[in-house]
Design brief:
With 462 residues, the protein is mostly helical. It is built from 17 helices and four strands. Bound molecules: NADPH dihydro-nicotinamide-adenine-dinucleotide phosphate and ligand LWLCTGZJ.
Amino acid sequence: MKRTPPNPHPEYEFLGPPGAVAMLIVLPLITYGLYYNCRSGFGCPPAYWDAKDGLWPKVGSNPATYASDLWNFLLSTWDTDAFMVYSAFMVFLFVCYFVIPGHVVEGTVVGGVGGSPLTKDRSNYKLKYKVNALRTVMLIAVLVVATLMTKGVEPFLFLHGHFIGLITASLVWTFAVAIFVYIWSFIPDSNGQEKILACGGNTGNKIYDFVLGRELNPRFSASPDSTFDIKYFIELRPGLIGWVLLNFGMACQQYHDLGGRITNSMVAVLVFETFYVVDSLWNEAAVLTTMDITTDGFGFMLANGLLTWLPMNYSLQARFLAAYPVDMSMAHCLLVVMTQCVGYYIFRSANGQKNNFRRYGAAAPQNKGLKYMETASGSKLLISGWWGTARHINYFGDWLMALAWSLPCGLASPIPYFYPIYFAVLLIHRELRDEEKCRKKYGKDWDKYCEIVRWRIIPYIY
Ligand SMILES: NC(=O)C1=CN([C@@H]2O[C@H](COP(=O)(O)OP(=O)(O)OC[C@H]3O[C@@H](n4cnc5c(N)ncnc54)[C@H](OP(=O)(O)O)[C@@H]3O)[C@@H](O)[C@H]2O)C=CC1
Ligand SMILES: CC(C)=CCC[C@@H](C)[C@H]1CC=C2C3=C(CC[C@@]21C)[C@@]1(C)CC[C@H](O)C(C)(C)[C@@H]1CC3
């Protein structure tokens, strides 16, 4: 049965269905490409490029055999042990979610994305979520330390040696989860009504909706009291925790190869990225107000982002350093530490300022002295402090940290700079999408706000 008021049928984003098909093919190929183009013995262009080894598996040289080449290539990356390890990791996280105690928090009103008139009254309830990701990672840390003390680095070398198999395993999980949630989105809720669908993933075009994500909050039970939400579970656990574990595996490989030492550049990457992940898990509940949870559907794009893209591509710097160790000079270290500290300070204090303002209101003691403007929607907008400098100053802080994680790799190859380059594109695009959402929600008030806060991300630059 259709929903009343109905789920909106949106306009295409991401270049529509051709863009969606491209994502299905190109995103996995980028992850494979980053592996094949940057690994020990096969070079990382241009400085370490040994052309005779070839950079990319022979796919696509002859268009007539493209499909079979691609299939043979995928088969060659299959690794049963890696698949078992990745699957055991997923099952372990799933069990931890239920077994480890945690408090329950409420999200925002479901489906009322940004107060847009199109979606306003689709529900009047908030879903519940369990918060225990930090405890899960603490348990994993205890297990890792215990293994390290009893067996040394040997068991962790698996992560480096089976990296390509782990990529394929993560892609199998990505497609399995994406297909499941797509089919699940058609099953009516407990009232026999169509489920609440994402505003961006309900176009009626099957491939596009599969990629963008049809359902807003796929869950096993539609009851607001149940806490297992597939998107929320996957948002902060497999990707972020997997990223740190892979980094650790790369550091173990370097320790093994260098005969019992790791470089200061590897320490910097390990410490800063682990810190970022622990900080995100510490602030687990804050993810409930991000665009991913409140606005975007859960489909191939996010499943791939969290199960494959994030752990496999974000660990590139550590993988590079395992292959090509860098010993940083004191000046190099200082540059890296300063970039990280400035980035983190902007990122955390800007996000904190907005969270406090939204959560406790303008009159709360922690928000004293902050200037804001009233809007017709009833929601207030900060116009001083961090949010008075640029409309997404928090993105700038996040990007500076991304840069700080690549700088330890030196300048011999551009490949380890993949993360800050891709991240800049993602954040600029994300800012445009958020701007569109806010313009719909705040109307003329948003234009007024933009006149007061002129810069989008970096004051005086963009
Ligand atoms: N590491 C990674 O790969 C990624 C990290 N991120 C990070 O995630 C974090 C969350 O990002 P995201 O969800 O995109 O967006 P933001 O945290 O920037 O939130 C945007 C929302 O904040 C509200 N808002 C905007 N301006 C103001 C203002 N002046 N005063 C008060 N509220 C305002 C609006 O919502 P409303 O008014 O409706 O409340 C707007 O939609 C960021 O720090 C980002 O860097 C994001 C993507 C990838
Ligand atoms: C097209 C393409 C490459 C899509 C993939 C994008 C995803 C990798 C990112 C989209 C939004 C993300 C967020 C985080 C990780 C990357 C993805 C999934 C995030 C979990 C990182 C940690 C942060 O503290 C966060 C929780 C705010 C953040 C949420 C968004």
